[in-house]
Specification:
Oligomer: single chain
Radius of gyration: 27 Å
Low-confidence stretches: 1-45
Largest sheet: 9 strands, mixed
Distance between the termini: 61 Å
Shape: globular
Number of strands: 37
Helix content: 10-25%
Mean pLDDT: 89
Strand order of the largest sheet: 7-6-10-11-18-17-16-13-14
Length: 696
């Protein structure tokens, strides 16, 4: 039986302050806020890792608006509005600096959804042409602030375009002013990053935010906001959508000349929950419900090391605590650490827990993946555990409850294969060793009657991805989707919801996975216990923790409790679901060992995350197999690379073109490969050159 040992070496430390700020504004950018702590195996000599994520963003993310008021001009309609006037299916996003948190939020969420857009920084960049002959160049307009550096001529052009093409405008963070049909109600201030300010939905919000749970309030946190009163002029209408203490903080507004606006009087940022919640409604509203791109809420957890035992964090035992600043993959500690392995009660309880969530409409598509190592299974099926191993028998009995993913046979490091302990000499796995690690593990699944995600694999410690012999064996064994690690720069894709094509084998896609601060070597919540999550969390982030803030002060001035940790990790999972991330999320088998009744670290965090998500959104949550996640990423990459362009003739047709064959998702129409999600139709249209789609 193989067990995985604790981190002995620190691979990556906290970045400098500037990197933290950059990564928080663009969590998918090169300065990712995820950090890997390399954990080394005693028996297998194989790295596993303690992944550490920055627990939370800066508390203050926005400031008061300092832009000039937007002019409020009533225009005479120079020509009848033609509602079927063609317009390109992309959005115009206007920013004053390109660094506003609201601008970062807009573009970040558009990139996740796959909605085409063009951004311009005014007045330092020229305003793009709004029309090309009779065709409008934009489906809608989004302003990062109420007046993002626009000149009087810009406003005139935008106003005329809005009238002539009937397009809508969203002001993502606006001062309450006449252009948006609202007036300041006398309050401005910052919402706390802890308790926040509750925003209440009005009855009218149902048409804009039908996917949100409007029976609950939406917390506004870490953002500046202004309260407003509706103040439409004669012939105008203003409809509040969100209120704080009865005062308006979001509204739609229609001018007498037909122009339509949506305005939010609070700031946004990519990592703020309220921003993630409202963003889809704003995009859907500005496009009038038909756009290139699509959204779904995903949560695809993966349980690494199934059938193995994990070693456990032990405070005060140096060998069982991450330390040092070098990466030495042959290290084997002299002092053994406590270990633990799931038992039959753990997996039985886990399956029952998943069944309970699956019995609800919102979570019936939720499914956990078992990332297994066959060496830990019963010898009956080709492993090294006793023939009567209860965990193996129960896992097989419950096999249909889970996805199953190859994690190699015995968790060897494919870049430092079976080294002499503490020798500092590494030899990568050769072709035959690599082949055997893949095939022997497949054999275990086959003998056990387990349906394997046959084209997928998660390598131990994300090793082997730069090993030509392993990658050659992977291709020859039919693998197409390997795991990458978003905690590492090389595991960060170029754009959201895409993967990374292997530079060694172009047929293989590297599928990035999210980490959690539920560390692989933890199972308990009590201080001093073997595998205590609070102990290890505070070891990293507490008053005397390894990681500090940029000014050298502790990340947290007080010791963090299990309740605080659970709440914070649940918020992270909620954020992935709200912004429609397709990336799987990594956990480990120790996290699935019960610490009280039927409760585990994994189930407790997910229970809290689902409760929080349900309080915000009514969208169904879906889990993908590793291969299906990879296919979704490939589909997005294909669209991104195909220069897809759409022209909408409202009520009549959509004309699509692409530079090469691809399949493009379109929300709001039901044609080829139509499905319904969240109350809207999504069609996937195959393109090879150009095509025309008749509406409706």
């Amino acid at each position: 039986m193989r067990n995985l040992s604790i981190a002995s070496t620190l691979l990556v430390l906290l970045p400098i302050a500037g990197s933290i700020q950059q990564s928080m504004f663009n969590p998918e950018g090169p300065a990712s806020p995820l950090f890997s702590l390399l954990a080394l195996a005693k028996k297998t000599k194989t790295p596993d890792k303690v992944t550490v994520t920055v627990p939370e963003p800066p508390a203050v993310v926005s400031k008061q608006l300092v832009t000039a008021p937007a002019p409020n001009t009533l225009l005479a309609v120079t020509a009848p509005v033609n509602p079927s006037s063609p317009r390109m299916m992309k959005l115009l996003v206007i920013t004053a600096t390109g660094t506003e948190p609201s601008f970062e939020a807009i573009t970040y969420f558009l990139d996740h959804l796959g909605i085409p857009y063009q951004s311009v920084r005014r007045p330092s960049q020229p305003m793009p042409a709004l029309t090309n002959g009779a065709t409008g160049n934009f489906q809608g307009v989004i302003l990062a602030t109420g007046n993002p550096g626009l000149l009087p001529a810009d406003w005139t052009a935008l106003d005329n375009y809005a009238i002539n093409y009937g397009v809508r405008t969203v002001a993502w963070y606006a001062w309450p002013e006449a252009r948006y049909g609202i007036a300041w109600a006398g309050f401005s201030g910052g919402a706390s990053d802890t308790t926040g300010v509750p925003m209440t939905y009005t009855a009218a919000a149902a048409s804009v935010f039908p996917y949100l749970n409007r029976s609950q309030t939406l917390p506004l946190r870490s953002a500046w906001y202004y309260t407003a009163n509706p103040s439409p002029l004669a012939g105008e209408t203003t409809t509040p959508l969100l209120t704080v203490s009865g005062k308006t903080v979001a509204a739609t507004h229609t001018k007498a000349d037909g122009r339509e606006y949506m305005a939010f009087t609070f700031d946004s940022a990519p990592w703020l929950i309220h921003s993630m919640a409202i963003q889809y409604g704003a995009f859907n509203w500005v496009t009038k419900g038909i756009f290139l791109g699509a959204r779904k809420a995903y949560f695809s957890p993966q349980n690494d090391d199934h059938f193995l035992d994990n070693d456990l964090f032990k405070l005060g035992v140096a060998a069982c605590m991450p330390s040092g600043f070098t990466n030495e993959p042959t290290y084997a500690p002299n002092t053994p650490c406590p270990t633990d392995r799931m038992d039959t009660g753990d997996i039985t309880s886990l399956a029952a827990w998943q069944d309970q969530w699956n019995s609800t409409t919102q979570y019936r598509g939720f499914k956990l993946a078992m990332v297994y190592n066959g060496v830990g299974a019963s010898a009956t099926y080709g492993g090294e555990a006793p023939n009567n191993d209860a965990l193996t028998a129960t896992s097989i009995a419950l096999k249909s409850k889970f996805f199953w993913i190859n994690h190699t046979y015995d968790h060897e490091d494919l870049d430092c294969y079976s080294p002499v302990p503490n020798s500092r000499n590494c030899t990568p796995a050769d072709y035959q060793e690599s082949y055997d690690e893949i095939q022997f593990n497949k054999n275990v699944a086959s003998r056990a009657g387990i349906t394997l995600d046959a084209t997928a694999m998660v390598t131990p410690g994300i090793s082997g991805l730069n090993n030509p012999e392993f990658m050659r064996a992977a291709v020859n064994r039919g693998l197409k989707y390997l795991a990458a690690d978003l905690s590492r720069p090389e595991g960060t894709p170029a754009s959201p919801n895409t993967g990374i094509r292997s530079p060694l084998q172009s047929s293989i896609l590297l599928v990035p996975r999210r980490a959690a601060n539920v560390f692989y070597n933890t199972k308990a919540i009590g201080a001093g216990a073997d595998g205590s999550l609070p102990d290890e969390y505070n070891y990293f982030w507490g008053p005397n923790g390894m990681f500090k803030r940029p000014d050298g002060t502790p990340w947290y001035a007080t010791t963090q409790t299990w309740t605080q940790i659970r709440d914070r990790e649940a918020d992270a999972l909620v954020s992935y679901m709200l912004r429609g991330e397709v990336y799987p999320v990594m956990f480990h088998q120790a996290n699935l060992i019960r610490f009280s009744g039927s409760t585990t670290l994994f189930t407790a965090v997910v229970d809290k995350a689902f409760a929080k998500f349900s309080a915000i959104s009514t969208l169904p949550v879906l889990s993908l197999s590793h291969s299906d996640a990879g296919k979704a990423m490939e589909a997005r990459m294909s669209v991104n690379e195909s220069q897809v362009a759409g022209t909408l003739y409202p009520g009549l047709r959509i004309e699509l073109t692409s530079s090469k064959a691809t399949t493009v998702p379109i929300t709001g129409i039901c044609k080829t490969a139509c499905e319904s999600y969240g109350g809207q139709s999504i069609s996937r249209i195959s393109l090879s050159g150009s095509t025309s789609i008749v509406l409706p």
